[in-house]
Amino acid sequence: MKMITAIIQPHRLEEVKKALYDADVNLITVSEVLGHGRQKGVDEYYRGSKESGNLLRKIRLDIAVNENFVEPTIKAIIKGAKTGKIGDGKIFVVDLPQVIRIRTEERGEKAIG
Fold first, then answer.
1. I need a surface site. Which of 5, 6, 55, 57 has the fewest CB within 10 A?
2. Domain count of the chain?
3. Residues whose CB falls within 8 Å of the CB of residue 66, separated by 6 or more in sequence, listed in order
4. What is the tens place of the pLDDT at every residue in 55-91?
């Protein structure tokens, strides 16, 4: 099991969601976050308005997947988020030692779904 965390541009969220759904990845958590990468301090445009300063609006996706969904999930995120410009984002993949579904108390791969 892996936890895949992706930081993407807000205007690419719908494209990423569509690519994930097409890859049969349906369980995601989405958060609005602030941050910057190498482009710190560079102006960025979001829905037609200029964002400047050190912290830029980003979207964080957290997706817990079983091993057979790791590569399809990564490919779907890249397909939906990639523009080829600075600020497209990052994907982090970390081991997920345990998952527990609260309602049924199922553990491991069954808990992810």
1. 55
2. 1
3. 1, 109, 112
4. 888 999 999 999 999 999 999 999 999 999 888 999 9
